[in-house]
Amino acid sequence: MRIISGKYKGRRITAPKKLPVRPTTDLSKESLFNILNHQFNFSELNVLDLFSGTGNISYEFASRGSSSITSVDGDLGCVAFIKKTAQEFDMDITAIKSDVFKFLERSKAKFDVIFADPPYDMSQEDFERIVTLIFENDLLDEQGLLIIEHSPHTKMDHLEHFSSNRKYGSSIFSFYEYEQVETDEEDEDDE
User: Fold this and answer.
1) Measured between alpha carbons, how far is 89 from 14 in angstroms, rounded to an integer?
2) What predicted TM-score, i.e. pTM, was given to this entire model?
3) At what angle do helices 56-63 and 76-89 cross, to 10 degrees?
4) Core-most of 57, 111, 168, 178, by most CB within 10 Å?
């Protein structure tokens, strides 16, 4: 995998072959970060990377200036690899070994961006449970964005807070956010 942009642009990171992962492709990752570039100032983001695997998405946020990144994965090998890589690159990434659902049930922190890349063969119910837990436990900032990567076999557009999705190859990114209420300041100024 390679880092697409920012401080570490072009750097290659080689994960051990034995890790149980399916990293987000460079094309999908580049498309996702093009969307995020228009919405966020990366240096101000508090990021949560769920089912983080090799840390591919976390490294991209760190390279673009995010200094508060939490990576959660249930595999000890993945967490150890993220810790080692973050230390080598001097990235501020906190890697936590935990069942993602238990983490979401216990966490009290709020995040600006939450990215989840569960195994594509995870059940529909568990995909939906990620969205439910995040909004029920108020883990997303009011202006924040939840992104779930999934295959076309998993349907995510019927859930509350769904805003849009984008398809890249065999991956779909579904986006969730709180509905933004527009204030009509211009009308008040006219009075």
Assistant:
1) 13
2) 0.90
3) 20
4) 57
* CA 44/CA 144 separation, integer angstroms: 12
Distance of alpha carbon 46 from alpha carbon 61, whole angstroms? 10
Distances (CA, A) of 41 to 46, 51, 65: 11, 24, 9
Q: Please give the Cα distance from 111 to 45 (Å, whole number).
A: 8
Q: For residues 141 and 187, give the distance between their C-alpha atoms in angstroms, rounded to a whole number.
A: 28
Phi-psi region of 46 (alpha: psi -120 to 50; beta: other; left: phi over 0): beta
Segment 11-63, tens digit of pLDDT: 888 887 877 777 677 778 888 999 999 899 999 999 999 999 999 999 999 99
